[in-house]
Here is the input.
Amino acid sequence: VLRDLVAWRDAGVSVGPVAVNLHPNDLKSPDILLSHLEHALGLGFGPEHLVLEITEGCFSERSPEAAVALLTRIADMGFELSLDDFGTGYAALSHLRTLPVSEIKIDRSFVSEINLSERDRTIVAATLAIAKAARLRTVVEGVETLEQLQTLQALGADFGQGFFWTKAVSPTELITMSKTPMSPRP
Here is the structure.
């Protein structure tokens, strides 16, 4: 990711913060993880350039107290933490109490049927309300249609990601896309 950020910066492409998924193994090796973050800072990429995404799997093989201590240390460095795949784990609500997260990402499984399932719409609405009350930013994954986007906007989602905007692209394709003028959608 740091190599891509350097390439984008050299090409004059500003992408905003880039989300990086942390693997459970990353938390098992805190010295290596902290070294990578310090390296990012040394390259001129501060916490405003990276959002670190964690899942409940990050706690599966590490004591919860040690994981929270490491994540708190990372947050104290200024990096934002995002709780990814929110709503799919067994202790997601308790994580909002104990983890220094500033964002939750609502899993795509709740979005795919949001306009067909009252239950999915209710779950997403309740999750967004909890996030707003806790002053957490929200990202909704798996947005693929205009109708889904409109429903999520009406429910108060902050951000979305998904094929509605673009499929996943390689780092070099992103440079090309950013330099290609866009025409309005028909």
